[in-house]
Amino acid sequence: MRGTARSLGLQHAEVGVNSSHHELERTEGLTNAASCNFVYCAHHSHDRRCEHYRKCVQSRRRRRGRDVIPRHKYYCSLFHGYLTDPTVKFTGSEEIQEGWHRAEDWDWMWSAAKKGGCMLDGQGLQLGCALLCNPKCKRGQDQFHIHNKPLSPDGQTLQAYLHENVCSGVGWLQIPSYASYCRSRTKNYAKFFHHFPAVFSSVEDSGYFRDRGGITVWPVSQNFGCHQRGYVLMLSNCNIEKDIFPERLR
Fold first, then answer.
1. Sequence-separated (6 or more) residues with CB below 8 Å from residue 19
2. InterPro entries, alphabetically (predicted)?
3. Sign of CA dihedral 47, 249, 108, 175
4. How far is 12 from 3, CA to CA, in rounded Å?
5. What is the pLDDT of residues 175-221, one digit of tens each?
């Protein structure tokens, strides 16, 4: 099914909505915990870590007869919009970290992911949900994808911590490992934004992005301790997906 998100000027294609979520994400966060078995999907698309690449890049390319350049802003929705991928090869946040692409050229992907998934009620990202991408070597797919899912009880606990400790702060604040579910030696940071941030550009400007490819975006509200509605952007070097999302959606 295809449609056009006119407000963003994006073209959307929904792929494999009847596929098992575990087929798409079956190794997410478990593979590469101790080592980095990164797969370059453009050369090894048959690998199980390249299922997103096959569904969103190769199938799209076959339909169009050519590749799609990033400025056209095409994206692919998987599993009812819980997962959003670009339709060109883009391995993950490391491509921004390592300077292969400009952050501002890929901020639109987060706005696209914000529109789908979550409660499946057409409202997209809302309170009680979060956007997430995992860092290199700590994910199960090596085609960039953003999760937009409702929170588990532990995810709600972290969201409450961010409400209480980040909303009233200024700038990037350090988040302790016990609160963030990230036990890495690399420190975690978060910042409050009044409006939905240009995610990649904001984390690149933070000065903390180089060693922290795990990104989450959390809606926050005055009803839960914030001084106003907005978003908290958090940086870590961990896969916290299993901690903040329900098991049935992992």
1. 78, 79
2. HIT-like_sf (IPR036265)
3. negative
4. 5
5. 998 899 988 777 999 999 999 999 999 999 999 998 899 999 999 99
Greatest distance between any 2 Cα atoms in the chain? 51
* Residues in a beta bridge with 191: 233
Q: Give the separation between CA 61 and CA 15, rounded to whole angstroms.
A: 13
Q: How many residues are there in the chain? A: 250
Q: pLDDT at residue 119 above 50?
A: yes
- Residue 36 in tokens: 């980095």
C-alpha dihedral (51, 118, 2, 105), degrees to nearest 10: -70
CA gap 78, 83 in Å, rounded: 5
Among the listed residues 131, 100, 121, 81, the one whose alpha carbon sits nearest the alpha carbon of residue 204? 100
Taking the complete model, does pTM exceed 0.70, yes or no? Answer: yes
* Cβ neighbours, 10 Å, residue 179: 15
